[in-house]
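Your task
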Amino acid sequence: MTDDQRIDTYLQHLRASLEVPRSERARVIEEIEHHLRDASLDHQRHGRSQRQAIALAIDELGAPEDVAAAFNDAEPGPDPRRGIVRWLPLVVPLTLLAARLGALAWSTTFLVGGTTTGERT
């Protein structure tokens, strides 16, 4: 197995163990891949062979199932739709209120001159 295949195999096991939304899954896989490659390069700078460096990076990170479990247990981020849905029931009452206030403002414009619509000439 080549060195890149070791990382790819690790990422495949991680992907299979992740229980997060698809958009988040892609971000997690990318993040872990960058971490493995950066750690591998760091070990190579300290005199390890590429094979040893990748093995060390994988060992330091831990089993893919354990890494996936950490992401699976993480609190989900805020759902952007949740805020919109939460305020949706207020749209109709607020629209009606705005219409009533507009009608009230329109009707009071005739009081400023001291006349009503029937008295205007």
Remarks:
- Residues 80-112 form one domain.
- The chain has two domains: 3-73, 80-112.
- Helices lie at 3-17, 22-45, 50-61, 64-73, 80-87, 91-112.
